[in-house]
Amino acid sequence: MAVKAISAQGAHELLRTDPAAVLVCAYDTDDEFRKNDLEGAISLNEFRKRRNSIPKDETVIFYCACPHDEAATRQTKKYAREGFANAQILEGGVNAWKSAGYALVGAGA
User: Fold this and answer.
1) In which element (H, E) is residue 89 found?
2) How far is residue 92's CA from residue 77's CA, in Å, rounded to a whole number?
3) Which residues, in sequence order, are CB contacts of 41 under 8 Å at separation 6+?
């Protein structure tokens, strides 16, 4: 299964213009989320709690700090199989986000 990818610039613009779009840290632990908390993101645990209230056609962007976006790709494929038609990975993850000049919050800032 191929996954859709979006650039940091594309994701930032989408999140700015579409308040329903969701940015999700692909790590299972809240500690990893705190280390990699991008501005406007929610944790994977929060997403799991809210997923039944998120429309299946809404854009959901998963990200991680892995060298090849492994965790984000894994979560994107999982939720695409569950029917999230617009699940995507943030290409380049945390590093691409920082390189584009966008903010991290919490421990990662």
Assistant:
1) strand 86-90
2) 17
3) 23, 24, 25, 33, 63
Please state which CATH class domain 4-103 belongs to: alpha beta
Domain boundaries of the chain, sorted by first residue: 4-103
d(C-alpha 58, C-alpha 67), whole Å: 27
Work out the burial of residue 24: count CB atoms within 10 Å of its CB; fewer than 13 is exposed, 13-18 middle, 19 or more buried.
buried
Tokens 């991680």 sit on residue: 64
Q: Which residues, in sequence order, are CB contacts of 79 under 8 Å at separation 6+?
A: 51, 60, 62, 87
3-state helix, strand, coil in the chain (%, to 5): 45, 20, 40
Q: What is the pLDDT of residues 51-108, one digit of tens each?
A: 999 999 999 999 999 989 999 999 999 999 999 999 999 999 999 999 999 988 865 6
Does the pTM surpass 0.90? The reply is yes
